[in-house]
Amino acid sequence: MSDPLxxxxxxxxxxxxxxxxxxxxxxSSGKDSAFALYELRRRGEVEVVGLxxxxxxxxxxxxxxxxxxxxxxxxxxxxxxxxxxxxxxSPCPNDVYERAMGEAVERMRANGVRxxxxxxxxxxxxxxxxxxxxxxxxxxxxxxxxGRPTAELGRTIVRAGFDARIVSLDPRKIDRRFAGRxxxxxxxxxxxxxxxxxxxxxxxxTCVVGGPVLAEPIPVRPGSIVERDGFVFADLIPExxxxx
Length: 244
Hints:
six-stranded mixed β-sheet, alpha/beta, four-stranded antiparallel β-sheet, 28% helix, 25% strand
């Protein structure tokens, strides 16, 4: 992980106290990880020192979300945090994923990181998996959004000023017409009752291109919408980028 990038903080968040534990945020490129970062910075109890994500090597995009690496890198610059992108194959056997992430965890521990923050909300099996995999590594998982009612949390994310777009979805759980939509009050009003407002069950995934944890917005335009491996992906093309 490279040194943090120079530049003003996105908002005048409180400065962590001396000796505060160093934290890396598990970064999906979407709204929940971005809001987890927001909450950590707002509370000022820890020192956030970086972002951690996985990139599917064959596509050069954030895994599951399909966010282009260029947008990921612009997000990192706008948060004023370095990002470690762990490359994984497609498909990725679980043992390969766990080995790659284990190596990243060891690098972070060697650099003084003591906690990893996750944007998980209520799925107990996911939380238990993270806790089991980090047990004995020297890093503790923390969950700054855990247990918050998702209907209220979705509205809070919108009111806080986050600009997020739906970049992938599971058409078995939510209609394809939502692909590419902005995550806003209008969308939340339209979601069927079967869909969690924060999509905690994997109904859809988002990409954040503006908001209080970004020092500047990321200009994007909509690209193509494709279906691959049973999921629908709505491409976002960064300003100056090319389709593909």
